[in-house]
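User: Hand in any protein.

Assistant:
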Amino acid sequence: MMYTCPGLCTDPRHRHARPGPLSAAKDARGATAVKTVKRRAGKSLRVDIHCHYLNPQVAAEVAHLKPAEHEPSVIFASPITREVNVKQMVDRAAKLSTIEVRLKDMDRMGIDIQAVSPAPPQYYYWTEPSLGAQLAAKVNDRIAEIVATWPDRFVGIGTVPLQNAELAVAELDRAVKTLGLRGIEINTNVNGLNLTDPQLGLEKFFRRVQELDVVLFMHPNSFTHADRLTHHYFNNVIGNPLDSTIAVSCLIFDGVLERNPKLKIVVAHSGGYLAHYWARMDHAHRARPDCRTVIRRAPSSYLRKLHFDSITFDTDLLRYSIEKWGARHVLLGTDYPYDMGEVDPVGHISSVPRLSRADRDLVMGGNAARLLKIKPRRA
C-alpha cells in the first residue's frame, strides 16, 4: 500500500515526488495555468470529472469527534443500510485511498485522467470554522501531492470550509493559487442551510470562484431533512439528486447565476431532477409573480450555462441530456469508487445512438479538459 502522509510531507525518508515551487501552478496574473498531459496516439482524451479520494489520516484525526453523528447518510438510514455502508467502506477502502489500486481501475475503465475530489464525508462543515479550515487544508494538501506525484493521471479538485465564508475564500485562494488545484467541490447545502441563505454570506465565495476561473463541482452528501427517506437507501437514491435540485434551484431563483454568469459549475448525478424536469420550473416562472422576485429570464436559460456529468445509468436519459443541454455541457463521470457509480463510463457514452465522433470526444474528455485547463499532447 502506498504510504500516505498528511499534507505535503517534507520528510526526505519518504521520497515523495515533489511538485517543485507550487507557485509555478499559476501564471503571472495568479490564474491557474494550462496543464499539459500526455495523450494516447490516435485516441481522444478521457477525463473523469466525478471521482473521490478519502484521506485516511484526516479521517483518523477527527474520529474522536464522532463524525457519523453529523452525517445525514447515517442519521436517516435504516439498520440494514448502515450495515451495508459500513461493509462498503471496508471493502472499498483501498480504492478510496490507495493510488496504485486506483490507477489499475482507471486503466481498466479506459480513463486517462481523474479530476480527483474529496469524499463527501470529508467536507466537515459541521466542525468549528477554524478546525474546518485546518481540515480542508490537509485534504487539499494531500490531493495536491497526488497530482504532483502522478501529474499525467490526475488533476485536483479541493474543498473549503463553507461554514465560514471568509475562511472559505482564503482556502479557495490557497488551493488554486498555491497548490494549483483546478476547482472546488462543495456540498449542496451547509448544515441544512441552502447555499443562498443570507446567514452563510457565500456571495463573496461564488464571486471569487468566478474571478479565479476554476470549476465548482456541486456534489450532495445526502438529504438533511430525510425522515421519510430512511428505508431502501432512499436518502441516497432519492435524496442526493433531490438536494442537488434544491441547490441549483436556489442558485437560479436567488440570482447567484445572474450575478455570476461566468461560473463554471458542474452538477453531479446528471444535474439531479431539475435537468430532466426543467419545464415545470419555467411554467411556474411564467405563471406566478412570487417566482419572479429576483430573475426575469426563464429559469432554464440559466441551466444552459451549467454542466452535468454522464451518470444517468440509462442511454435514453444520457441522450436527452446531451440533446437538451448540448454536447459541450455533459462530462464523463464515474462516482468512483462507490457502488452508486458508473463502472463502464466509456461504454455508457458510446451507447448513445447517432452521437457524432466530435460530440463523443467532447463528452469523453474534451469538455473537462477545457474547463480544467488541460492541454493534451501526444505520448
